[in-house]
Description:
Number of domains: 1
Helix content: 10-25%
Radius of gyration: 21 Å
Structural class: alpha+beta
Shape: globular
Order of helices and strands: EEEEHEEEHEHHHEEHEE
Bound molecules: zinc ion
Distance between the termini: 44 Å
Number of helices: 6
Strand order of the largest sheet: 1-8-2-3-4-5-12-11-10-9
Strand content: 15-25%
Amino acid sequence: MPVEISENDDSVEMLKNIHISTYNDNRDDDADPEEVEDLMNDDDDDDDDEDDDEVQKPVTLGFVEKPKNKWSLLRQLFPSKAGGVPAWLDPINLPSGRSRLCDICEQPLQFLLQVYAPTSDRESTFHRTLYLFMCLSMSCLLKDQHEQWKRPAVNASRSVKVFRCQLPCDNPFYSSEPPRHDGSDKPLGSGAPLCNWCGTWKGDKFCGSCREARYCSEKHQAMHWRSGHKVMCQNSSRNAGNSSAEDQKSASSSPWPEHEIVNEDEAEYNVDVSTDLDNANCLVSKNQMDDSINSLIDSFQGDSDRRSWGNFQERIARAPEQVLRYCRNVCSRPLWPMSSGQPSTADIPKCSYCGKPRCFEFQVLPQLLYFFGVKNDADSFDWATIAVYSCEASCEGAASYKEEFAWVQVSSPSQVVP
Ligand SMILES: [Zn+2]
Ligand SMILES: [Zn+2]
Ligand SMILES: [Zn+2]
Ligand SMILES: [Zn+2]
């Protein structure tokens, strides 16, 4: 259910009408800001100058589901999705060069999720999608913990990256008519050829032998070669002409299975927690979820972290399967699991394209890893939350994919390498 940001908010005109949605969903304006409680945790050890007394904005929760149809998550349907490969909004001018690599190990980044969040007040943001990528190496993520504090941000070596892409209603890639969602929707043209291994990044390098298989990187070429292209290479040159690059299935399977992200208004869950926990319709039992999330707390040090964790957990318990919390507003802030390692307003770098401040837009919760089937043990890949900040002006500019900013709290401060 799409949630529009409250109409009586006049703090920042341009943030009105921002929502995550399905393009042709019926608009639903029943979110009552009066019912929305204070979303924030206590940040008494934070010297932030933000006004925490301000009425908090409604939060839209994201949940993952198996895609309803095999066409449900194609780019012409403007999906919000997690896992699998990205559905590139602008299918031609993809992020290129170093921006698609982990700055630390220099390997291509893995797609985590994308959120379709258009704004209806401006022509240039009729379609708007944010993409989140990260390196699968936990040691890179731990190094990234230090890099995220670096200023200017362009000097930081990040293993987590966010891109923003937006298009007007009238654009070269899609019809201006809303999709019919019956399997018949088609984009106006094909996109750039993608890497045959990862299916994620532009395939701008060729296999030297067949001149047909395309790759984003030497690493992916080597992986494809070892996993069978060595044999297929000879055959594929005989079948030349059959492969249309964009639609070709990637040879690797994503470590994170593809899911659709569906939205619910958090206000729907503002019921007594004790009754909610007994909800028999829960896909995941309370105990399973507790195991996956409680294992984090043992490593927390200090009372303020424990208190923060308590607030976080109480809030999440209203809808324990949520994987994403969306609330784009200049005065909204993430629900931080820990009080230590939170950025102040000054720690969030300004937009590198227009110089305007960035505001919080959404956060990703560790429950997503549970739905991805990532094992929950001491050495496994993990985070406590990833908060995404984007240009408050959603500025336009030359680059089709503009890099925004992610702040990561890892699950245990003691894991952070000195
Ligand atoms: Zn890396
Ligand atoms: Zn690749
Ligand atoms: Zn080849
Ligand atoms: Zn900007």
